[in-house]
Every structure is written in C-alpha cells, then in structure tokens.
C-alpha cells in the first residue's frame, strides 16, 4: 500500500492521467463525430430533395408527371440524372414555352441556381444518372487543346460547324452555337445528349477527352486573329458560302451575259 501510495504521488502521475483523459476524449470523438456529421449531411440532403419536389410539383409535373414518369407532353425524367436537369434548367430550355416547337431554344433561366440544385437533387433521387460535373472535370487545367480540336472535328463539327457556330438540321431543328456557352453546360450536354444531340458517356469520350474539347472551344471562341482563308462569312460553312457563290458568282455571270448581248445588239444596229 505504501508503494502504491508513493506511485500515486509521483510528479508524473498527473501528466499520465491527463494523457489518458485526452486519449479517451479523442477516441470518443472519433467514434461519434463522423456519425453526427453524416447524419447532418443526410438531413440537409433530404431537405434539399424535399424542396426540389415542391418546385417540381409546381413547374414540371404538368408535363413530366407527378413522379417524373413522363406523359404525352414530356419524357420520363427517371434516370436522367442531376446533370441533365442542371443543363436544361440553367440554360432556360426548361420549363419549355411550348411542346409543339421542333426544338426548344435557350433563354434566360427561370429558377435561381439554388432552386436548380434542389430540382436536380430531387430528379437524381428518382433514379441513378449522370451527376453535375465539377470544375476539375471541365476546367482548362491539364487539357490538350490540339487533341480537343481533333476530337471536335471528328465528333461535333458535322452539326455544330468546325468553328462551333452551329448549323441547320432537318425538319426545322438545328445545332446551336457554342459561343458564350459555359464550360459546365458543354460538358453536361456531351454527358446527357439533350434534344437532337447524341450522348457521349465516358465509355465513348473519356473525361479527359471532354476536357480537351471544351478547352479547344474556349480557345476558338477567344481567338481574335484574322481568318487564314480570308473573309470568313460568319464561319457558317457551306450554307453562307453557297449563298455567296450563287448571288455574286451567278449574278456576275448574268451581268456579263447581259452586257455582251447588249454590245452585240448595238453592233448589229450599227
């Protein structure tokens, strides 16, 4: 007992007790804190989904159905993912002004970004689909612009024109211009394939490929240098070039023919 009492009065005894107390406190925090944080995150996500459901019921359910299953006026949204919602609603394509148009154009967004995030969370809860990309995925860091140009010409230029200014499709549809389009929205469009556009999942175009294409478009849209081929005619390709050829080329030939005929008639009279 005397030995035990002496050990308790040892100068280091208080330090040992303090260290043990700190170790126990840290252990208890490590056990319980993550669970509390996860529970808080889950509660916040549930609230976001609930708010998104309310917005959906007011602005979307009339066309897409009360549970997102789709109707004759709108397709099913089950499994489209948050990325599709963010693209369609952020660019103002949804809600659509009319379902009868050949193609829904972009326009000013109706919802705030916070409301769009809530709608996206609700639609994502209906079925697994592409998530909203992060800035790391679509940012220019680590992108290969030359490779992006090659990929764009092989996969996108047929519709969007090699300069990204868009082009006409069939039955009143069109490929929109890619000028002044946010990189995130370009990534989301490739990921989800809105309207007439095919989708390019990571199995078709990798995340790096998409980053390269977006970097190339950013370079094209900011390049203020002169066109190496002379007058670009708006960069709209064969449509404007053909129109130019018909008006000025054929018009010039007609003018020459009229002039020659007039000279010939005048010479005969003389």
Q: Would you kindly provide a written description of the structure presented here, covering whatever features stand out?
A:
Helix content is 59%, strand content 1%. It is mainly alpha-helical and 270 residues long. The radius of gyration is 32 Å and the shape is elongated. The protein is built from eleven helices and two strands; from the N terminus they run ααααααααββααα. It has helices at residues 2-8, 13-59, 61-64, 81-90, 113-126, 135-138, 145-155, 157-160, 183-192, 207-222, 238-269, and strands at 167-168, 174-175. Residues 1-30 form the signal peptide. Its EC number is 7.1.1.8. It catalyses: a quinol + 2 Fe(III)-[cytochrome c](out) = a quinone + 2 Fe(II)-[cytochrome c](out) + 2 H(+)(out). The cytochrome bc1 complex is composed of a cytochrome b (QcrB), the Rieske iron-sulfur protein (QcrA) and a diheme cytochrome c (QcrC) subunit.
Distance between the amino and carboxyl termini: 147 Å
Q: What does the overall shape look like?
A: elongated
Order of helices and strands: HHHHHHHHEEHHH
Q: Strand order, main sheet: write it out.
A: 1-2
Rg, Cα atoms, Å: 32 Å
**Structure class:** mainly alpha
Domain Cytochrome c: 47-127, 143-221
Enzyme class: translocase
Transmembrane segments: 243-262
Subunit structure: The cytochrome bc1 complex is composed of a cytochrome b (QcrB), the Rieske iron-sulfur protein (QcrA) and a diheme cytochrome c (QcrC) subunit.
Summarize the structure.
It contains 11 helices and 2 strands; from the N terminus they run ααααααααββααα.
